[in-house]
DNA sequence: GCCGTTTTCGGCCCGACTGTTTTCAGTCG
């Protein structure tokens, strides 16, 4: 017989919990960008193309899941850059998992043409010509056509175009560089430029100045009476391997590791306007220039103009003032709400390095660190910290000589002894405990309960289905002895397409159980990215900025974590380790 | 396709550089 099923009502419905199959924001944004590319190849109206790109950007920077919004019946037209048409298309995409328009476009335009589009120097017009005139629909065909001379014979193409295609065809990538790697290339160049005669100001701009965690290329702005000196100096620099283009005010070079650098030379009185212009982001600049238009002003890299008269531009403050805004920190210039916040007088007072009082993730010689507990503590004290946590690896990380229960207890005893004899800094007994493949923890509850600070992390089994990964994270969050999830996304996103992990569910659980999330400043990988850190913060989850230092030198990386926190709009009060030790410990759940 | 303190049409940011042209289109940031 049939049982009457009671209506299934979850015990508690979180607003952030979503269906497990829900399509994630990055996937949606990617589809919109594909539509834009394909429309462009078809020669569609460029403003229509831009509308799709703008919508994609809106979705990328949402701090909540679009699928959840659809599920809750929210009006997508409230979102910027989403109108009636796109709201309908996106709703259908969320419900059906596919964007019909994209599928239709892919039937008309061979998908390989999108690869042709990625080659430096080839845009939609040229890619379309190659496809329609020569039947080029993938990179192999392109190479053959360039080599045979077919490309050079096309109208609007020539010998140089064909050569450029062959030179760039193996260099198709959207590669981005970690900020630290970019810094190591940039610093020596800045130093050389600053030392050169005839150059006044030298400043990095672009995404580097906006302190993005990765950069696609570098931008350097120089003021000088004559641009030749600056350009020659750059061209002669030992880490510059090739000059890609060079004009009177603008030059682009390739550096040793394939990172590219733009140099712009502007006159002194344009410095502020140029800094603003070249710092971007593009989306931010578009908004500023539009505000200028509304006030009958023209804004470019040389200044703010009313008619032919320059009315501002020596400083960034002047540029913002001309469009009735106060100065906006570079980290916020992404058109992610900074204009609205500035108008409402609600720009956040961003966190500073000096606000940080504790560092709660570091290693010692007990596992894979280079320095002792005492050395780490002394170095942290020198940096002005009031407290630290020593968090060596647990035993599963055998290649890092991870600690089992017995060694951990001995390690913690040593911390007690050092604490008793150290002044001016407090050392917490911590552990970076692995979340194993079966969703249990690497150390049992009894020993974990004896510590002050337990960070749970994923190191292994990251190729498991995302459902199992989520199960492991949730199990760790629900363990009463766990205080924080360490580098929450870094290790996952390294191995997996980010679209698969449902952070809505993850955040909801962390919030519910009072578990902190870590922004990890370790330089060798990406971590909780800025959009998600902002989302976590909006969900009311305290964040902790740590260095994951493996030596006393590694403690210097706190700045990188703070940089990222600033990009996430975080203020002092959003970050737990800006508190005194006593206040910090009050935040931790009692186990 | 989006948007609106010139609001339902008619706009949509702006300039530098390259390679192809012979005055400019395409690409890029």
Provide an overview of this structure.
The structure is a single chain. The protein has five domains: 84 residues, DNA polymerase, domain 1, CATH 1.10.150; 56 residues, DNA polymerase, domain 1 (Orthogonal Bundle), CATH 1.10.150; 90 residues, Beta Polymerase, domain 2 (2-Layer Sandwich); 74 residues, DNA polymerase, thumb domain (Beta Polymerase, domain 3, 2-Layer Sandwich), CATH 3.30.210; 235 residues, TIM Barrel, CATH 3.20.20. 42% of the residues lie in helices and 14% in strands. Helix 1 runs antiparallel to helix 2 and helix 1 runs parallel beside helix 5. The chain has 591 residues and is α/β, with parallel strands linked by helices. The chain contains 25 helices and 17 strands. The two termini are 47 Å apart. It binds one DNA strand of 29 nucleotides through helix 2, helix 4, helix 7, helix 9 and helix 14. Keywords: DNA damage, DNA repair, DNA replication, DNA synthesis, DNA-directed DNA polymerase, Exonuclease, Hydrolase, Methylation, Nuclease, Nucleotidyltransferase, Sodium, Transferase, Ubl conjugation. Its cofactor is Mg(2+). Its EC number is 2.7.7.7, 4.2.99.18. GO terms for molecular function: class I DNA-(apurinic or apyrimidinic site) endonuclease activity; DNA binding; DNA-directed DNA polymerase activity; exonuclease activity; phosphoric ester hydrolase activity; zinc ion binding.
């Amino acid at each position: 017989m049939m049982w009457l099923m009671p209506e299934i009502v979850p015990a508690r419905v979180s607003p952030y919990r979503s269906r497990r199959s829900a399509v994630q924001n990055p996937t949606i944004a990617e589809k919109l960008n594909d539509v834009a590319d394909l429309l462009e190849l078809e020669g569609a109206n460029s403003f229509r193309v831009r509308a799709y790109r703008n919508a994609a950007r809106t979705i990328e920077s949402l701090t909540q899941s679009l699928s959840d919004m659809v599920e809750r019946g929210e009006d997508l037209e409230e979102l910027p850059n989403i109108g009636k048409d796109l709201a309908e298309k996106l709703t259908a995409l969320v419900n059906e998992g596919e964007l019909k328009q994209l599928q239709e476009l892919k039937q008309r335009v061979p998908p390989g043409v999108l690869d042709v589009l990625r080659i430096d120097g080839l845009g939609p017009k040229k890619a379309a010509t190659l496809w329609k005139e020569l039947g080029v629909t993938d990179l192999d065909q392109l190479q053959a056509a360039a080599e045979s001379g077919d490309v050079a014979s096309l109208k609007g193409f020539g010998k140089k175009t064909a050569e450029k295609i062959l030179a760039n065809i193996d260099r198709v990538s959207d590669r981005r560089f970690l900020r630290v790697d970019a810094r190591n290339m940039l610093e020596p160049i800045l130093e050389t430029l600053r030392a050169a005669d005839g150059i006044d100001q030298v400043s990095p701009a672009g995404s580097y100045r906006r302190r993005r965690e990765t950069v696609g290329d570098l931008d350097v702005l120089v003021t000088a009476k004559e641009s030749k000196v600056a350009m020659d100096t750059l061209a002669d620099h030992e880490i510059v391997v090739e000059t890609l283009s060079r004009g009177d005010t603008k030059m682009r070079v390739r550096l040793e590791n394939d990172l590219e650098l733009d140099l712009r030379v502007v006159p002194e009185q344009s410095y502020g306007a140029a800094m603003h212009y070249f710092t971007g982001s593009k989306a931010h600049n578009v908004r500023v220039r539009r505000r200028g238009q509304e006030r009958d002003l023209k804004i470019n890299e040389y200044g703010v103009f009313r008619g032919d008269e320059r009315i501002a531009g020596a400083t960034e403050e002047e540029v913002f003032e001309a469009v009735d805004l106060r100065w906006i920190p570079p980290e916020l210039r992404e058109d992610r709400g900074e204009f609205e916040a500035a108008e409402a007088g609600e720009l956040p007072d961003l966190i500073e390095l000096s606000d940080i009082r504790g560092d709660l993730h570091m290693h010692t010689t007990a596992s894979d660190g280079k320095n002792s507990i005492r050395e780490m503590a002394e170095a942290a004290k020198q940096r002005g910290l009031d407290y630290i946590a020593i968090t060596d690896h647990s035993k599963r990380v055998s290649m890092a000589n991870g600690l089992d229960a017995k060694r951990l207890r001995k390690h913690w005893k040593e911390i007690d002894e050092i604490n008793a004899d150290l002044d001016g800094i407090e050392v917490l007994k911590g552990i970076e405990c692995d979340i194993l493949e079966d969703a249990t923890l690497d150390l049992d509850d009894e020993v974990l309960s004896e510590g002050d600070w337990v960070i749970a992390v994923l190191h292994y089994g990251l190729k498991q289905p995302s459902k199992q990964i989520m199960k492991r994270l949730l199990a760790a969050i629900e363990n009463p002895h766990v205080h924080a999830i360490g580098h929450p996304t870094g290790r996952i996103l390294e191995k997996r397409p980010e679209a698969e992990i449902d952070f809505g569910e993850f955040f909801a659980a962390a919030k519910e159980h009072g578990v902190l999330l870590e922004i990890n400043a370790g330089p060798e990988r990406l971590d909780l990215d800025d959009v998600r850190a902002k989302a976590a913060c909006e969900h009311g989850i305290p964040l902790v900025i740590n260095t994951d230092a493996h030596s006393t030198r590694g403690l210097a990386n706190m700045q990188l974590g703070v940089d990222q926190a600033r990009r996430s709009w975080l203020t002092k009060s959003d970050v737990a380790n800006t508190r005194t030790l006593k206040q910090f410990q009050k935040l931790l759940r009692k186990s």
